[in-house]
Design goal:
The protein is of the alpha/beta class. The protein is 47% helix and 9% strand.
């Protein structure tokens, strides 16, 4: 089902609306959000820049898709299965909440469900999660899932023996979701302990192309940008994304000038939990520090940049994560963006003077449902088949293309 439904409701003056199902215990059954009309021109004055994390700042999609594929294999898709399809499946597996993704995986695997494969993996994951909970909320969720699965006070061996031979129809969607969630978070916890962003590193993530020059410019720490510094940044941006129309030093200087003029606040809005975000953002800062340390800059400017990249709180003025909302209210619901806008503490003008960067359809729609009109979609290899009805611009050339086209985003 597409995210965007045409709902000609008089109360919304014929605006397009976002129709999203609520959880079974919530009323009304669906939430309707009127969507802001995507802007057709640049921001006149830039108050804030809000950036998605996964897929926008850092390419964690291969990591998360790999975990979801592991859940599918545990559900019983079989050894011959070649993985999810980029066109048919990725739009449903990137950008939403973990629960939404797992519902899709469970439905996808329904014809192949194999208790003999699934049940032992659930038991192993429950043991791991109970012993090493990511945080208090996750520990409580594991205890709840043990109740759902009938394992709260039972013998794990006997439980496995019983459920491994049980008929699939005895294990409803809620039962399978509880087990799949535990498998997912056990794999994620293991991945987070090994996470070292910056290269491939064997962990399935890397920084977005051109991220270091982009953040150096948008943070304002590079101003004023000298000609030789602009040429340096343009060279890095072009090297990170060869084959695109080249970014020029003049583009970097023009962007730095608008940032110095408007001094926007920079924030992150992510559907990752606070724990995940801290791990990933910390890794991003570590890699930014390494990269910037190699740039031939004057000492004072390098120190200013390194201080800004020392930690996530220094680099980003606001960080909004899934831990501040509810699992069923994450993107494409607008809640995270509403929370982020509230942190900025500005008036109505913030909606017209905020620029959002997102890589997924769900993220761009969430921003539009929160009333933000200036949205740039950064399509990646994993999200290039997404639709972006709420985006004013689409860039497939990474942050180098963003810097090159900056005059189209923010008026000079």
């Amino acid at each position: 089902m597409p995210y965007i439904d045409s709902l000609p409701l008089e109360a919304f003056s014929g605006a397009r609306c976002l129709s999203l199902p609520n959880t079974v215990s919530a009323y009304p059954p669906h939430e309707l959000y009127p969507l802001a009309h995507p802007a057709k021109g640049p921001v006149a004055r830039l108050q804030a820049v809000l950036l998605d994390m996964d897929g926008t700042l850092v390419y964690t999609e291969p990591l998360y898709l790999g975990i979801l594929e592991g859940v599918a294999r545990a559900l019983g898709v079989g050894a011959a299965w070649k993985g999810f399809d980029a066109v048919q499946d990725y739009p449903r597996l990137i950008g939403n909440s973990v629960t939404t993704h797992l519902h899709y995986v469970i439905a996808y695997c329904s014809e192949h469900f194999a208790p003999a494969c699934f049940v032992p993996e659930v038991a192993r994951s429950l043991r791991a999660n109970a012993a090493h909970a990511m945080n208090c909320d996750r520990a409580e969720e594991t205890r709840h899932h043990m109740r759902v699965l009938g394992l709260e006070h039972g013998d794990a061996e006997a439980w496995c023996a019983t459920w491994t031979v049980a008929p699939p129809e005895a294990m409803g969607v809620e039962w399978r979701l509880a087990g799949a969630t535990e498998i997912y978070y056990a794999a994620l916890a293991e991945a987070l302990t090994q996470m070292e962003p910056g290269g491939d590193g064997g962990n399935g993530i890397r920084l977005a192309e051109g991220l270091a020059p982009f953040l150096a410019l948008i943070s304002g720490a590079m101003h004023p940008v000298r000609l030789e510094e602009a040429a340096l940044l343009a060279g890095i941006l072009n090297a990170d994304h060869p084959g695109e129309v080249a970014c020029r030093g003049d583009d970097a200087i023009a962007m730095a000038a608008t940032i110095a003029r408007d001094q926007p606040r920079i924030g992150v809005v992510t559907s990752a939990t606070g724990l995940e975000a801290r791990a990933i953002l910390g890794g991003i800062c570590k890699e930014l520090t390494r990269q910037i340390g190699t740039w031939p800059l004057e000492d004072a400017k390098r120190e200013r940049l390194l201080a800004r990249c020392a930690n996530a709180e220094a680099l980003f003025e606001t960080i909004t994560t899934a831990s501040e909302s509810y699992e069923h209210r994450l993107k494409p619901h607008p809640d995270l963006y509403r929370i982020a806008l509230g942190k900025l503490g500005a008036g109505e003008s913030i909606l017209e003077e905020t620029l959002v960067f997102e890589d997924s359809e769900a993220g761009t729609v969430a921003a539009g449902a929160a009333g933000i009109r200036h949205v740039c979609a950064l399509a990646t290899e994993q999200t290039r088949h997404h639709r972006y009805p709420q985006a004013s611009w689409m860039c497939s050339g990474g942050f180098g293309e963003v810097v090159r086209r900056w005059a189209g985003f923010v008026a000079g």
